[in-house]
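The protein record minuted underneath.
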Amino acid sequence: MSQSLKKVTLITGASSGIGLELSHIFAKNGHDLILIARSSDKLYQLADELRNNYSIQVASFANDLSKMSEVQYVVDAIKSEGAFIEYLVNNAGVGDYGKFEDQDWDKIEQQINLNMKTLTYLCHAFLPVMKTKNTGHILNVASTAAFRPGPLMAVYFATKSYVLSLSEALSNELKDTNVYVTAYCPGATATNFAMNAQATNSSFI
């Protein structure tokens, strides 16, 4: 990671969908970036594209953030470089479709880890410095799923309710500072999410 990255925006799930679009928006507005995604080929291609098109610094991590060991690796690497995460975008998320009792436990655990545990850990890791500097913004990508239960996607909907609740609580705790927490709650969006969740026939997403 470049030593010149000192004040940056961190985006998870950056190589596709909403994360991809947000990466372009932040880059267009002159932000140096740290991008994280599992898909290394797409990620490295995106990083090169943003460097060339917007003359910004971009560091990239091809890591699986549903695994806490890899989350810890990324956080340690960023902190060792002394980078200040001014904007944290917790976009990475995963879902699965089907009756709860029939779903594979590993997929359930992956949703809980990525959608809640990793998001919470990243907030906890970078919020203290934002608070010390009295500047920063955390954008947690929730969903309209956060506002209701979701039969056949019970765990996914529950994780998004958690994201919304956590974001609102942190925003309240930080109300007397210049640090902000926002929950972004998009509805059905033209991404690969439904296909990856095997939920293309769902009326909810």
